[in-house]
Amino acid sequence: MKKLINDPKNVVNEAVAGFEAAHPDLVRVSHDPIYIVRADAPVKGKVGIVSGGGSGHEPLHGGFVGSGMLDAAVPGPVFTSPTPDPILAATQAVDGGVGVLHIVKNYTGDVLNFETAADLAAAEGIDVRSVIVDDDVAVKDSLYTAGRRGVAGTVLVEKIAGAAAERGDDLDAVAAVATKVNSQVRSMGVALTPCVVPHAGEPSFTLADDEIEIGIGIHGEPGRERIRMEPADAIVDRILAPIIDDIPFASGDSVLLFVNGMGGTPQVELYIVFRRAAEVLAEKGITVTRTLVGNFTTSLEMQGASITVLKLDDELTALWDAPVHTAALRWGK
Amino acid sequence: MKKLINDPKNVVNEAVAGFEAAHPDLVRVSHDPIYIVRADAPVKGKVGIVSGGGSGHEPLHGGFVGSGMLDAAVPGPVFTSPTPDPILAATQAVDGGVGVLHIVKNYTGDVLNFETAADLAAAEGIDVRSVIVDDDVAVKDSLYTAGRRGVAGTVLVEKIAGAAAERGDDLDAVAAVATKVNSQVRSMGVALTPCVVPHAGEPSFTLADDEIEIGIGIHGEPGRERIRMEPADAIVDRILAPIIDDIPFASGDSVLLFVNGMGGTPQVELYIVFRRAAEVLAEKGITVTRTLVGNFTTSLEMQGASITVLKLDDELTALWDAPVHTAALRWGK
């Protein structure tokens, strides 16, 4: 294992300290327990939004803390849910008096720990609502999940719910728009290589030199099938078809097309994937009106990519376009 | 070799087509010859800025085309300079009547081909100035270079020169500020793994499981020394010391600290590197007032990172803060 780390035990601590040093204009960090809040938290009269989960998926979630998106992110150990304590502390830290939304990827540990934290926060008089993200069409249940997994679609839920909170929507409305995004977004991924969790020191799975995993999870959980390497266009066709068929997306739809890198994939490859995905959608009469390409929901240094498609309407488009100021997504005044 | 590509011959074509499909609001693309220009090029009365070089370093340079930064980027084949033809065509396409600046990384092929293109453009009456970027302190001469190599500091030259052109500076002034940034910026990198050029199919060099290359070039050219793997902090100390000693940076300086990923490095590692680099600078009385962390000058899927330090003054800080709207850097109205 070769990594730019010191002690594997300190990966999250030190990365968060670096994040704090790099972005003092955007965030403040609590080191014990570990959580990241936007620099001006709590924002009085605004719904607070908290997300989190195991580390190793950066910039998810810390990179999305800032105005117009998350109020707090709670990073657990690598690929391991944070405990209820830091989730509760983050919830308290961003409570502006009108409630807090938890955005939770659908993994058993995350769901349980966020639920416990929400109960504890409620006992202290904070109105907490939770939205579970489960956008991955690859598998029904998996290693760490009952039901579908939450993957890159989480970024879109966080951006759009964040914009709704920023414009002053109340807790019901912010939760409703987050739920709506989750209902209209679908994702699927592919892995070319595994990744190495620092404290494990070895890959959690292996792939032969000519093998890829279709429908990979963001912790390297098995997907739908392991196949021989294929040209990019054939791979895109394989992972995009189940996405389109799922809702289904249909001719006349306007969508946001998001090609996400798993962390170790060169950008040229992500754009090659984007090109084919846009082509396939166009052939089906589906219009791509918004786009996102890059490493946003990663699995450490895994090579591979995922495709996410979100059905847009005027409301979601306006919320997507609204200003956002975070380390990983930034636009507008 | 496992990559999300189709035919290795079409990597650049298809990636550029994907880039065009993903960012129609920011850029237009010429496919024969291949170059990328900002959507509203040429901007009358504004100095045009053109950069380029071999592909495989994305988002450099196409990701920096847009208002406030580059007017055009000319991507050559992977790790190979573009020929004079597309550089000339891009220069013509962004000529707003008040001259064009070429920003060229110091590699023999790039320097020669940009020089030829500049001569051809001059013969057509376009006033062209060139600034050569050579920020890498690792080696004096190298495989593809006479003198120092141009690496991640190029991003800072492009951003700041772009802001100067956008505010209406004339060609002399834009060239002068680009030259000033180059004179005040220094970089050095480290590789943990090699990368595979698609048409080669094999890594251009190898590193043992416990080896790293200190002072790596962005095409995998040899650096200063090959050593045993060390903790991140020790590696940062090794590559930061020659940067600081070079100008030298001194107590009382204000700097921009830029930690750049080589393409395959997880973001947690980049922030661990940032943390230590900021610590070392603080110990020396050097104040980090601006920051940048991420994959901006890459070597395909290489694992590793580089550190870049730019000495700031009020003018450079204001130009860095000025609005920029590109695929890879975006802030301000």
- The helix content of chain A, as a percent range, equals 25-40%
| Uncertain residue segments of chain A | none
Q: Overall mean pLDDT score of chain A?
A: 97
The largest β sheet of chain A comes out as: 6 strands, mixed
Number of domains of chain A: 2
Beta-sheet strand percentage of chain A?
15-25%
Number of DSSP helical runs of chain A? 8
CATH topology of the largest domain in chain A: Rossmann fold
Using the 3D structure, state the CATH architecture of the largest domain in chain A.
3-Layer(aba) Sandwich
User: Structural class given helices, strands, pairing of chain A?
Assistant: alpha/beta
Output the strand order for the largest sheet of chain A. 1-2-4-3-5-6
The SSE order of chain A reads HEEEEHEHEHHEEEHEHEEHEE
Protein described:
2 copies of one chain form a homodimer. The first copy, chain A, is an alpha/beta fold. Chain A has 2 domains: 10-183, Dihydroxyacetone kinase, domain 1 (Rossmann fold); 185-322, Dihydroxyacetone kinase, domain 2 (Hypothetical Protein Tm841, Chain: A,domain 3). In chain A, 32% of the residues lie in helices and 24% in strands. Chain A is built from 8 helices and 14 strands. The first copy, chain A, has helices spanning 11-22, 84-93, 108-123, 153-166, 171-184, 232-246, 267-283, 314-321, and strands at residues 27-31, 34-38, 48-55, 72-78, 100-105, 128-133, 185-191, 211-214, 225-228, 254-261, 287-294, 304-311, 324-325, 330-331. In chain A, the strands form 3 sheets. Chain A has a 6-stranded mixed β-sheet, with helices on both faces. A 6-stranded mixed β-sheet of chain A has the order 9-8-7-12-10-11. In chain A, helix 7 (267-283) links the parallel strand 10 and strand 11. In chain A, helix 4 (153-166) runs antiparallel to helix 5. The longest helix of chain A has 17 residues, at 267-283. Chain A starts with 10 loop residues before the first helix and ends with a strand. The model of chain A has no long low-confidence stretch (mean pLDDT 97). Chains A and B meet through helix 1, helix 6, helix 7, strand 11 and strand 14 of A and helix 1, helix 6, helix 7, strand 11 and strand 14 of B.
